[in-house]
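ingest -> fold -> write
write: protein_1
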Amino acid sequence: MAESMSGAAVVVNNAGKAYGIITRTDIIEHIAKKKEAALLSSAAEVMKNGVIAVEPGIQAELAYAVMDANMISRVPVIKNGVIEGIVTHRGITNLWKESYDILKSDHNELKQKMSYDYLTGLYNKEYMELELKKWFELCLKDKINLALILADIDNFKGINDTYGHDCGDHILASVALFIKNGIRSMDVPGRFGGDEFMIICPLCDGNTARRTADMIRKNIEKWDVKYGPAPVAVGISCGIASLTPGTFEYKDLLKLADNCLYEAKRKGKNRVCYTAGLGFVLKNKP
């Protein structure tokens, strides 16, 4: 017991069958009673209890309860009177901790996967709204720049109708890649709808966001899309808004960017429109 730092030990016979259990308390009480003669006593003379044991098939939770009820930290596993092993209080606790850690890891992985759009690999709409709200409140509080880009693929329904949804999916995934390759590491890109994308640009003013959006637009315009025998013309329209004294909620910023996107579409598509004060500034296709 001293070597294993346990409070009890199982007494077995020569055949390995469990005979009983002896505890530290049993030994102390026996020495107090027998004095020097106690040193010559056998384990069988000292022990007061029969075997407290569990069977191999018992659930860990029940084995834990057996130990708690008898105030012991380990219990033998016995089958047909023969000890097959031992289960400890700490062993079960560690097992539960490992199971909890695995479940927590699986939950975090699932939560992370639920934040992404499976087709484009960008964040999904729910995540983007939470991020926009977070960045808006932070930038408004600290009076720092924040810009928002909304981008929409031009004539996407016609592309789907003409070339099929496989082609449409290919274009969505490719546009997402253009976006990822065209922004800063701190920018947050997401798919905000069917063919609509959002880019949150912290520490960025409207003009810088406009240049970023226009560079992405030009790269997509130059993209030589081959899907079947005929080339596919792909363009995007972008609306941009930046944090100004007149924006009090993140939805105000979203509405401004959406209005600019609508203006870019109305003016002929494949162009960038952004807010400047209370009006619009239109960046026409060169």
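write: protein_2
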Amino acid sequence: MANRKTPTIKRGKPRTISVISAYLAGRFMLTTVVMYGLLLVAIWTDLNYGKIYNWNTYLGIAIALVIGAINSYWAGSSALQQVFGGVELGDATLGLFACGAILIVCYVFLNFNGGIGGGDVKLLAMLGAFFGFEKGIEVLLWTFILAAAIAVVMLIWTVKPTILMHRFIGRVRSIALLQTPEYPEGEAPMAPLPKCLPIGAAAAATLVHLNLLTHLGLI
């Protein structure tokens, strides 16, 4: 009986790396690179000097609006948009004012212990200009969630859980009895944590820009 040769199946090389590279190349256009550069500068200056400088945020807002104008009015802007990225001018302007207005309200009425600064307001307004209205609001909401999560982790890391729980119970008791919180002798109030909003904003921008929740199958 003749031996039959098993057909050899040729398999192509794994394309995972090339697919990921093509995906990221389509996401990280010039506007995105500029935005992340400004975000990193904001994080660095905030951690080292406690400030987010106006030249940083105003420069980002100006770049986002200029690119929005190019996308809206320049002849052949569809070709340029593939290089620059970004949104149209109307969407950029709406995102700028919407995100800025929400942060101003938080800054004026909900700014407990100085957690939000004027630089944070302008930073989120800048992201609204880069992302546009809809995605800008999404970035804003995720910024609050991620910044709060980072703050909790930092708090647990820097303070013993038992002390943290003791102070939490004491604070709840003081609020319930309408009293000023008192600290045991020799135990000073906790120093304020470093601002987490710029770090949360960078994480939120990445989450929304790369659409990570959808690609991870979480939504």
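write: annotation protein_2
The CA atoms of residues 91 and 219 lie 25 Å apart.
Confidence is low (pLDDT under 50) at residues 16-26.
pipeline exit 0
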